[in-house]
Amino acid sequence: MTTAATTVAAAITAVDQADSPESLSSAVKALADLVYPESIPTLIRVLGYNNPGAALAAVQGLINLGDCAVAPVLAALDEYNYGARAYSIRVLGAIGHPQSLDLLLQAALTDFAPSVRRAAIKGLGHLRWQELSDREAVAAQTQVLNAFSQLIQESDWSLRYAVVVALAELLVFTMNGSTVSGPLAAEILARLKQISQADVDIAVRARAQLALQPFQAVSPVSMRPL
């Protein structure tokens, strides 16, 4: 066994043998800091523990591991533990791999836990669209915009706020030489403008206005393809 493998094995054992919330959090953080793929199953397991400190350390560890954590997190998603599910969605959203698109859409639209839905909505805003072909990117972002059209009608202001944050990130992507066509960028601008004027909550309106500030001089007509 190599030195690195030995170190990871010892760190996993420390997690398994932790006998207090504090020692568990410390052990998980030490394991996460190694940024080693063999730690993924243990870090995923910790997401379901009733220990926010340990779970947050595991979330960061999985995010730092990047794409190699995506498939295991997707495969291990807990349908019954909403806390673990929320942490998993946060991981997938932060990594931003397009492989997570369907799960994020489903969670944003149908999950019963607001924390899960917020994490999924925000994740949809910054998927790595550039890894898709032009056609795939436009089709996927059209799906996302359709989902946002439903979500912006939610009574929970925090979900609407998350939609605005996601739209803002998507707008930045579309305005920076992305593969998304002009009409989609124009549609995002139009939706943010509508939200900035019509949402019933001042915090949501203000967030939409903030998102629009860098684009005040942009005309939707200029974004239409020739």
TrEMBL record:
<dbReference type="Pfam" id="PF13646">
    <property type="entry name" value="HEAT_2"/>
</dbReference>
<dbReference type="InterPro" id="IPR016024">
    <property type="entry name" value="ARM-type_fold"/>
</dbReference>
<keyword id="KW-0605">Phycobilisome</keyword>
<keyword id="KW-0042">Antenna complex</keyword>
<protein>
    <submittedName>
        <fullName>HEAT repeat domain-containing protein</fullName>
    </submittedName>
</protein>
<dbReference type="InterPro" id="IPR011989">
    <property type="entry name" value="ARM-like"/>
</dbReference>
